[in-house]
Amino acid sequence: MPVTPDDAKLMDVLQGGRCFYCGELVGGKATFDHLIPQAYGGADIPANVVLAHRRCNQRKGDRLPNPDELDRFFAERRASRLGIWPPLRALRAAEEGQEWIAVARAISQEK
Ligand SMILES: [Zn+2]
């Protein structure tokens, strides 16, 4: 299910009103960034989405989140109904150089 306005409000609270990438206040100008990009099969659901400035979202582009970003996301989402999309855990557990294949495998198991 795509992100609802209620989900977005909760995300804003969990992120302390800050952009996921730069940590600056984001206010009402937040965009939805898909941690695993939709271009690579990332789901359009709250468990794969964070709030970010448009410029930070664009700068991230189609890369995968790095380990620090994943750890931060997991900490923010702990005990939240918004959840964590399982392929993100598979990505965190992947060996260096195996990230894309780990993500692709995990996504295929989601379908
Ligand atoms: Zn930002």
Automatic annotation (TrEMBL):
GO terms for molecular function: endonuclease activity; nucleic acid binding; zinc ion binding. It holds the Pfam family HNH. Keywords: Endonuclease, Hydrolase, Nuclease. InterPro entries: HNH, HNH_nuc, NA-targeting_endonuclease. Residues 7-58 form the HNH nuclease domain. The keyword Hydrolase applies. Transmembrane segments: none annotated. The keyword Nuclease applies. PANTHER family: SLL1193 PROTEIN, TYPE IV METHYL-DIRECTED RESTRICTION ENZYME ECOKMCRA. This is HNH endonuclease. It comes from Azospirillum cavernae.
